[in-house]
Amino acid sequence: MARAYAMMGYDPSFEDGTKFFDRISESVAGRLDAFKARDIADMIWSFERVGRRDADFFEGVARHIIASMDDDGVRCEYKSRDIANILLAYAKAGHGRRRCGMYNDASSTLFDVFADHVVGLPTLEAYNSQDLSNIVWAHARAGSRRTDLFEKVATRVIESISDNSSNMDTFMSHHLSMLVWAYANSGGTNRRLFRAIAARVTSGELSEYKSQELACILLAYAKAGESYPRLFEKVANHVMSSDDLPRFRPQELTNILLAFAKAGESNTNLFEMMTNHIISLDSFMGFNSQALSNLLWACAKSRETNPILFATVADHILALDDMGEFEPQALSNLLWAFAKCGESNSIFFDKVADHIAALDGLDEYKPQDLSNMIWAFAKDGSSSNRCVFDKVAAHIISLDDLREFTPQTLSNIAWACARAKFRHPILFEKLAVEAASRFAEFNTQEIANMLWSYASMGIVDVSLFSSLGRAYSYCFYDCNCQELANIAWAFSVADIDAPHLFRDESSFINACVQKQDDFSVEDLSQLHQWSLWQKELMSNIALPSSLVQKCYDAFILTRSRPSALQNDVIFELSAMGLDPEEEVLTEIGYRLDAQVKVRGTRLGIEVDGPFHFLGNRNLTGSTMLKRRQVKALAGMPLVCIPYWEWNEQGNSSNKKRQYLRSLLGLENSC
């Protein structure tokens, strides 16, 4: 009777208000010995089916089953279907999950007891396709890592679906989807099994597969890292050629696109068809926060952007009362997708910023979530990003250590702060200490981004530069052009001599020569500043003369339009009779805003507007480098006019001229 009610998903009530399954649990307590194995299996399956998942009841049944079997699991009254249904019930009910790899209760031990029994059998001939798929699915769901069980089942499955006998037909579509899901989520994989199932799926008709099964299969292959382009191509062609798309549920739509993105399988036509279908839906109410996040992440990862889709999703989220349903990973991936695709939406980013600012804390956010989030705000350039950066910085500083932060997250956080011009010395100090202690873990891109970020912010951390520079000296040939240029520029700004890194005839010089035809104008400009730095150091290290000239030519191409502030200063200098020369190209390639002659001496004039500074009037790395190199190599003194000092003079020409006389040493002149 219990199974019949369970099949209907029904737990009837008696006249006294008690529930049917409550009475069953009370009546069987202490009497499990009177029940046959099949009855126990049906009972526990029925309890889970109607949502009755009381831990004490499941524990009691697990202890009874374990006690009924001998130590090695050989003596077992439970048949294949019983074992499969029992494990399925425990896994779905959330019982039997291991914690920290340990058995915490009888429910956890039950999985190993049955695994021992199955592995110990001489053959699995008595186990049909449903039993096998349910058993490994349950083990995967419960976090079991019984590789011996998974290997034995895989061998049996491969034999069955590779055989030309009738056994092939026993594995139905839902069995195959459960199998690949289980192996993809078991912490390991079995290439032979994935190959056999891929061959089975691609050789047959896909009309027998439900949309959920197709999505599950593709996602499993993507997660397991098993590349089978033919499988993805066949599913894509099936989806695009059928009329079933309107019957796909939101989760299935997003999972198929997510699988293509994770597997690196490109299919523009599929993405266009599915995203246009999603846009055409009456609403996004069927998409939960995770589905929306996965959808846009898949588009961004596959570089298959659809501006209308992004705008529609943004409008849907903006219409929500709050964003409480968005888990940290879903929210950070959503932001990452918008920024990655260049889909700027200031109102959307403002709403997310307000949500983050209102949170009590960021303890639920993993390092990758934090990294993706501020990277997105930095790329978007939203004016609301300051409160987000403040919150993330405060959270990171409060942590006891940063061991959970990967080199990629550390470098991305530093890069995002630099891109957003968010100067936070305490945060940068903490990041630097962690990075310096783990320099051997960083790859070339992470090193280049990390050091570029510190140099851009004008923060010189000797330990960080020394440690990462030492790691970088062994991998120049693995670097791309931008990384080579960034690392050279960063050391130039920091002015930290690194002969081990840039020694004469070094791998750095050779790498630059090999890549000289691939450098961008910006890369060449940075290398020119590195060459100037070598002159500052009076070292004998130099790029070949032809490359030096190429770098110089690229550097002098950079020109900026005079600002209103600069024009105002020039006007007052002219009014003083100093006849300023504008946009002066120095012999070392730098352009100065102006040049005047005072008592026979040429003086360079630099008007430093807000973009030359960070935070509390700290110079940017670029401005620091220019000032230092012009003073050292251009053969003239340099007079710098910060914007706030000029603004303090107000609209009075007399005050402005007096200020200029003071800077130029003309206080006693009329």
List keywords for this structure.
FAST_kinase; 33 helices; RAP; Endonuclease, Chain A; RAP domain-containing protein; RESC6_dom; 670 residues
Entry summary:
The protein has helices spanning 2-7, 20-28, 37-49, 55-67, 80-93, 106-120, 129-141, 147-162, 173-184, 191-203, 211-224, 229-241, 250-263, 268-280, 289-301, 307-318, 328-340, 346-358, 367-380, 385-398, 407-419, 425-437, 444-456, 462-472, 481-494, 499-502, 507-514, 521-537, 545-555, 564-575, 621-633, 643-647, 653-664; strands at 581-585, 591-598, 601-608, 613-614, 618-619, 638-642. It is mostly helical and 670 residues long.
Task: Provide structural commentary.
InterPro entries: FAST_kinase (IPR050870), RAP (IPR013584), RESC6_dom (IPR058917). This is RAP domain-containing protein. It is elongated and about 110 Å long. Among the domains are: 1-121, no CATH class; 412-420 and 430-555, no CATH class; 564-664, Endonuclease, Chain A. 60% of the residues lie in helices and 4% in strands. The mean pLDDT is 89. It has helices at 2-7, 20-28, 37-49, 55-67, 80-93, 106-120, 129-141, 147-162, 173-184, 191-203, 211-224, 229-241, 250-263, 268-280, 289-301, 307-318, 328-340, 346-358, 367-380, 385-398, 407-419, 425-437, 444-456, 462-472, 481-494, 499-502, 507-514, 521-537, 545-555, 564-575, 621-633, 643-647, 653-664, and strands spanning 581-585, 591-598, 601-608, 613-614, 618-619, 638-642. With 670 residues, the protein is mainly α.
